[in-house]
Amino acid sequence: MQNPKSDGEPRRSRRTPLIAALAVTAAFAVAAGVAVTQNDGATGSPVGQVSAEPKTKAATVLTQPYTKPDLVLTDTSGKKYDLREETRGRPTLIYFGYTHCPDVCPLTMSNLAVAKKQLPKADQEKLQVVFVTTDPERDTPAELGKWLPSAGDPSFVGLSGDFPTIQAGARQIGIGIDAPKKEKDGTVVSMHGAQVVAFSPKTDQGYVIYGEDTTADEWAADLPKLINGEKP
Amino acid sequence: MTRRTPLAVVTALALGAGLASAGCSADSGPELKVSGAFMPQPVGDMAAGFLTVENDGDGADRLTSVTSTIADDVTIHETKNQKMQEVTSFDIPAGGELDLERGGNHIMFMTLKRRPKQGDTVSIELHFEKSDPIKVELPVRETTHNPQKH
Predict the structure, then answer these.
(1) A156, part of any domain
(2) CATH, range B32-144
(3) Which member of A73, A102, B5, B145 lies 3.0 to 4.6 Å from A161 by CB, making a disulfide possible if both were Cys?
(4) Are A122 and A179 contained in the same domain?
């Protein structure tokens, strides 16, 4: 115990994890900083366009609606799908996500599916729910075709294509998404959009946004209005 | 020599105790309790698990890993800016709690061996830095289950 060498040993071994922890923390801080900057850059615009709505409401009505993005992608049957053409004059909800997403993406899709089933038949047929993948490499049309009916509803449209096209389309409606990133251990970090954007059948413009935590009940309350292009 | 041994042991113990209390300023250490556990019915071959770990003790702990009979690949993830990232541990502060909840931090199960349905239960074991492992039964709820919103 009096040996200075043995006294120094434990201290050094104790310090190592601390340094490692600090390094990890610093790495996280840098990563988080980058992510925030990128996200702000891509989704910054809606903030200025949002009108003052009570915070308890799921819906945020935009004072400056979005033009529907000119997106031509591939649907789950492998056919070309022109978003503007296919959804013209129809109430449409668009969400960007990926199937290797255990929580928020299936939650968003199933909340919408539950709410949709509560609508009168005619309204159910009018409503278009479009899921655009943010991870097209893994989410092929066939994969989306398998996932969407169980995550959401067989009527939901699943779109895949090349990532830059999808990213550009998302950006036009204020949704910032980064390309999936492969980690050293082989896992892929993908990203989903933060909002569902509702497009009016009257104007074909995206006029309401919903956060990812919108419940099935909140959707059920708002869908009848969205189907008529009214403000929720 | 023989008389010295007990002294060395005592010193070592004292040093050890000193280290432990320096790390978490605790006398009794963490006391963990798990509540609100569930798994939303999975829609593919992956699933998420959610629960709260309360720490009523006066020492911090960490959730370091999760194991389950339903999947060999079980990891813990944080969600930040719409991205999920695997983490090596989650803090469970003394007198605080770790919330794994929808839209945020979660347990992720990959390549499920079977597809559990609503009403089933899934067994998991939580492993901690300090506390003994805790076995938890996750009831499988509807895919939309989100207790934060009720």
Answers:
(1) yes
(2) 2.60.40.1890
(3) A73
(4) yes
CATH code for the domain in which residue A147 is found: 3.40.30.10
Domain range for residue A57?
50-227
Helix axes A141-151, A104-117, angle to 10 degrees: 60
Q: Which residues of A138-160 are buried (b: 16+ CB within 10 A; e: fewer)?
A: ebbbebbbbbbbbbbbeebbbbb
Q: Is residue A10 part of a domain?
A: yes
In a domain, A232, yes or no: no
pLDDT at B71 over 60: yes
Distance CA A95, CA A214 (A): 13
Q: Sign of torsion, CA A169 A197 A32 B38?
A: negative
Task: Locate the domains of chain B by residue range.
Answer: 32-144
Nearest CA in chain A to B47: A102
Which of A103, A109, A148, A210 should one mutate to test binding to chain B, selecting the residue with the greatest count of B CBs within 10 A? A103
Chain B partners within 8 Å of A187 (Cβ):
86
Span A68-98, pLDDT tens digits? 999 999 999 999 999 999 999 999 999 999 9
Within 8 A of B142 by CB-CB distance, chain A residues are: 110
Interval A43-58 mean pLDDT: 49
Indicate the pLDDT class of residue B27, thresholds 50, 70 and 90.
low
What's the complex ipTM? 0.74
